C-alpha cells in the first residue's frame, strides 16, 4: 500500500519537475542567484533522488519502528525539497536533471556518482538483495554516508551561494540531516 502512495507522490513530483508549476511558495526563483546556487540545485536533486530510491527499498522489509520513522521523515523532507529546487531551476531557465525517480538508479550520470555520499550501482544492488537485520543495518549505514555527503554539499552552498532561499534550504539540510545522522548512529549502536 505504501509503495503505491510513494509511486503516486513520485509521479506528481516528476511531472512538476518536468515542466509543471510548483505549488510551494518557496519554489519561487525570483531574486539574485549565482553559479553556486545553480550547481547546488542541479546536484542536490539527483542526490535526494537516490535517497528516495533508498527509501523505496524499505517498503517490502520489516523495519524496527524507529527505523521506519526515520524513513518516513526522510521521505517527507526530501520529496518537497526536490520539487522546490526543480522550480528554481525552471525559473532560472536551467535544465532540471533527470532524477531516475520511479526507475532503477542505474542510469544516473557519472557526474552524479562523483557527488559526496552517492552510492554506486553495486552498493544499491547489494541493498536491494539484502533482507532482515542485514538489510536494516546496511540501509542505515548507507543513509548515514549519503546524509554526510548532502551535508558537505549544503555547506558548500552556504559558503558560496547567493540566492537566499537556496542558502536557507542548505542550512535546513545541514540541520536536519545532521540530526538524522545522530539518530542513525544511535540506531546502529542499539
Describe the structure in your own words.
The protein is an all-alpha fold and 190 residues long. Helices cover 70% and strands 0% of the residues. It has helices at residues 2-17, 35-56, 65-91, 110-113, 121-129, 132-160, 164-189. Helix 1 packs parallel to helix 3 (65-91) and helix 6 (132-160) packs antiparallel against helix 7 (164-189). It is elongated and about 50 Å long.
Gross geometry: elongated
Following the backbone from N to C, one meets helices and strands in this order, namely HHHHHHH
Number of beta-strand segments: 0
Provide mean pLDDT, rounded. Answer: 84
Gyration radius, rounded: 16 Å
Structural class: mainly alpha
Helix content: over 70%
Unreliable stretches (pLDDT < 50, length at least 5) are 3-25, 102-111
Strand % is under 5%
**How many individual helices?**
7
Record the SSE blueprint.
Blueprint: H1 2-17, H2 35-56, H3 65-91, H4 110-113, H5 121-129, H6 132-160, H7 164-189
Give me some keywords for this one.
190 residues; mainly alpha; 7 helices; 70% helix
Brief overview:
This protein is mainly α.
